[in-house]
Amino acid sequence: MSVETPVVAVDGPSGVGKGTLALSLSAHLRWHLLDSGALYRLVALSAMRQRTALDDETTLAGIARTLPVAFSVQPGQGVRIDLAGDDVTRAIREEHVGDAASRVAALPAVRANLLERQRDFRTAPGLVADGRDMGTVVFPHAPLKLFLTASAEVRARRRAAQLSVPENSATFEKIYSDIISRDQRDASRTTAPLKPADDAVILDTSELGIDQVLRQAITLIVDRGLQ
């Protein structure tokens, strides 16, 4: 891993717009993109397909070490994610896969086996890394660390809109409850808990559109001489 290759770390909980911002930044900068959350979702999906228990740390760590994954940018369509040649771009975004990924991500052996794989994405001309511990653990010396936040209610509304779920439904209440539970689990785990790095720039996206967040991020990138 080259220390000269710049990294923009984009961290935060689910539903704050990390993925959209990271993809937009990578396209703007023409840099590589790492969706670290997808890696944990892929481990979780693989485990469920193999009927592996989500607390079987040894087996899950083995899955993480040999994960047959490929990312490919599709012009105008985002990133396609393949698992052993199978397009799982949509499958890994299912709510139950996200919940399972949060459980898998709490296991130290899984995180250890994915750490170097994530760092290998750091290649010229630069990398935009999207996740929950990019700035605190994976790329602690990144020249720019962004931590996105938004209220749980706003994030629940965004997810409900994606799923065409009415806000006054029981399904919406479950989405909201799951977000709260996942936040608590991610923030309280002993290994790489979800938190902003000491030198991270915190951006609250509750009342901002993606274009506004993108402009703020690009300004920070230019101010730090990364572009």
Query: Largest sheet at a glance?
Result: 5 strands, parallel
Q: So how many helices?
A: 9
Point out poorly predicted stretches: none
Oligomer description: single chain
Shape: globular
Helix content, binned percent: 40-55%
The proportion of strand residues reads: 15-25%
Notes on the protein architecture:
By secondary structure, the chain is of the alpha/beta class. Helices cover 47% and strands 17% of the residues. It has nine helices and eight strands. The protein has helices at 18-29, 36-49, 57-65, 95-104, 108-119, 134-138, 152-163, 170-188, 210-223, and strands spanning 7-11, 32-35, 69-74, 78-83, 86-87, 127-131, 144-149, 201-204. The protein has a five-stranded parallel beta sheet. The protein has a three-stranded antiparallel beta sheet with strand order 3-4-5, covered by helices on one side. Helix 2 crosses helix 4, helix 3 (57-65) packs parallel to helix 5 (108-119) and helix 7 packs across helix 8 (170-188). The longest helix is centred in the C-terminal third of the chain and has 19 residues, at 170-188. It is globular. The mean pLDDT is 92.
Short synopsis of the structure:
Strand 3 and strand 4 form a beta hairpin. It is globular and about 50 Å long. The chain has helices at 18-29, 36-49, 57-65, 95-104, 108-119, 134-138, 152-163, 170-188, 210-223; strands at residues 7-11, 32-35, 69-74, 78-83, 86-87, 127-131, 144-149, 201-204.
Which keywords apply here?
alpha/beta, five-stranded parallel β-sheet, three-stranded antiparallel β-sheet, 227 residues
